[in-house]
């Protein structure tokens, strides 16, 4: 069974960014995420849609 979310640490590794910078982007809403108690979870589908949109926008 495939999980529906990524952790901030997983996203940081995929993006090649520091964990602290990724947490900051999540808190500021630049990376789509939801807060579950004390944890941030990044929905896989929303993350990949955001990433594809960010790549297309940045390249234009």
Automatic annotation (TrEMBL):
InterPro entries: HTH_17 (IPR041657), SinI_DNA-bd (IPR010093). Residues 6-53 form the Helix-turn-helix domain. It comes from the Bacteria. NCBIfam families: excise. This is Helix-turn-helix domain-containing protein. It comes from Actinomycetospora aurantiaca.
């Amino acid at each position: 069974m495939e999980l529906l979310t990524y952790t901030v640490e997983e996203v940081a590794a995929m993006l090649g960014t520091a964990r602290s910078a990724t947490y900051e982007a999540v808190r500021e809403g630049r990376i789509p995420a939801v807060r579950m108690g004390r944890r941030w979870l990044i929905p896989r589908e929303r993350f990949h849609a955001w990433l594809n949109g960010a790549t297309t926008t940045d390249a234009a």
